[in-house]
Amino acid sequence: MKPAMRDRFGPFREEAESRGIPTGDVERWLAAARPCVTLTLTGDEAGPVVGRCGGPLLLPAGIPDPEHPFVASVDLAALPPDATDLPLPPDGHLLFFALPEPGTHQPMGRVVHVPAGTVVSQRDAGSWNTAHDDEYQALFASYPQGPLRAIAGMSLPYHQFVMPPGEREAGHLPGHPLSSELVEVGEDIEDVTAHGGPLQLGGYADEEAVEFDPVDIAASIATRAVAAGHWDGPVSAHAADWVLLADWYSGKHVRKREGSTVHWVIQREDLAARRFERVFTTVFWNP
Question: 264: domain range?
Fold first, then answer.
């Protein structure tokens, strides 16, 4: 962990120590931190512009009109070096799409990678609303708009428990018997250690009410989606084979979706092969 990032967790250490959590448990927890990028529309500490929420929808000719609303575009070449531990392409744009509404056995969004130098043309950003539903159109109109700036950071786990394979009862994160107490510390000092923003690349997944890792839950939903014929395999049912690509805290901006979060997850081998069409999108909503 870089010294600057280590210093950022100073308040976490102090708060954990004040609650009597042993130093060894705290340091093991901090060692699990993952680099991430917060993409924010505002902020005094914000870095360079790396993308945009909303704006023109620009796609190559071979990509069909999306079935979900356009959320944001990220310029991969503009991201800070080593901003995440994900094997992202060095350039091009990632376009994120999502409808913040829970789907039982089907993806609620997608991701498109447009390589650098690809010829694109502007599409109708509302073409997904084939039913011309006024409520959905009003929802889409409330999506955030504006340039996104990058803040490099570190992400700690937000979840407390795991469900071991073959078991019926949940347990604490392996190697972290005090995970509940450590998550609580992070929640209580979040205003000090975290940067607010509508989007996050990499790191750990978060949502309004989280006990289990949203990535684990997404892997399970994707497996059921394939079994139901709503998504093409192959998929792994093992959570360790999946990783968070991005989170969107949609409930902070989208009308009538308070408490919602979109998770774009992908199998590690698909990400390494840059098969972004294999991203699976889930939504948590706590109305």
Answer: 41-155+194-285
